[in-house]
Amino acid sequence: MRFKIINTVIIFLLCGALVLTFFGLTSFWYVLTFIILYLLFLLTVSTNVRFNFFVNSISENRNIINKQVAITFDDGPVENTLEILKVLKKYEVKAGFFCIGKHIEAQPEIFRKIIEENHLVGNHTYSHTRKMGALPVSTLVREIEECNRIAEETAGIKMNLFRSPFGIVSPKTQKALQKTGMQSIGWSIRSFDAVLSSEEIILNRIKKRLKPGAVILLHDNNAKTVNILEQLLLFLKNNQYEVVRPDKLLEINAYS
Ligand SMILES: [Zn+2]
After folding, report:
1. What is the pLDDT of residue 202?
2. Where are the domains of the chain?
3. Among candidates 167, 61, 180, which has minimal Cα distance to 124?
């Protein structure tokens, strides 16, 4: 709705500007600059769920005043998830795992182990396609429902929470979430552990952005994330931060 209103206003302003350009009352270059800025704005809000522009996502809990944060992992379950689980167990921490449907199919035992160890699981689509922004609503619904179906068949749970691959969202994502009854979950601290190579830089990014109620994004399919996680948990412990399961931190229901 918000997008429709803003888009209508922008198109209205553009038409007005084009009329002014036609009569020589303004420069065409101003209009072109305006169009480019609007396209950059759309690119920014469609690749960052935190802005809550196209989709209503929960990305942190600003009401939390105690030193509590949540840790989430995307893109599993894979073999490396077992190493992540070992570290979480060592520090007696519960986390959230946003799982890819086809990976659950390939690693059903690891998916069940995540749940048995009382971590949260959520939907990260069936195929984790890079074409998220270009998919029609019907395909997005299928991607979400297929992942939900596999999770239910594998572990008997009905997931409520969804995280969009690559953080890409559009008005179609919002429609697909309404049709499937899923809640979008974002993050407030993006570690870039899947992109950056330096563990020190990744850890410093997280440390600098830490605050009560924060949700940290990591990837359990990344080998170096095991060591990053251990160092992060040590840092959190030494700084009196408590790590709580994302549904507890965000005060929402993970399953129905
Ligand atoms: Zn992902």
Report:
1. 97
2. 2-46, 57-250
3. 167
* Overall CATH class of domain 57-250: alpha beta
Residue 221: alpha-carbon gap to chain centroid: 15
What percentage of the chain carries pLDDT values higher than 90?
74
Name the active-site residue from 124, 219, 220, 247.
219
In this predicted model, what pLDDT tens digit does every residue of 75-124 receive, in sequence order? 999 999 999 999 999 999 999 999 999 999 999 999 999 999 999 999 99
Q: Shortest CA distance to 252 belongs to which of 186, 172, 206, 171? A: 186
Which uninterrupted H or E stretch holds 19? Answer: helix 2-22
The C-alpha atoms of residue 128 and residue 100 are separated, in whole angstroms, by 7
Q: Is 219 a catalytic residue?
A: yes
**Residue 1 CA to ligand 1 centre (angstroms):** 27
**Which stretches in the chain have pLDDT values below 50?**
none
Q: Note if 74 is an active site residue.
A: yes
The pLDDT, as a whole number, for residue 34 is 80
CA distance 2 to 183: 18
Phi-psi category of residue 167: left, alpha or beta, with phi > 0 → left and psi -120 to 50 → alpha:
left
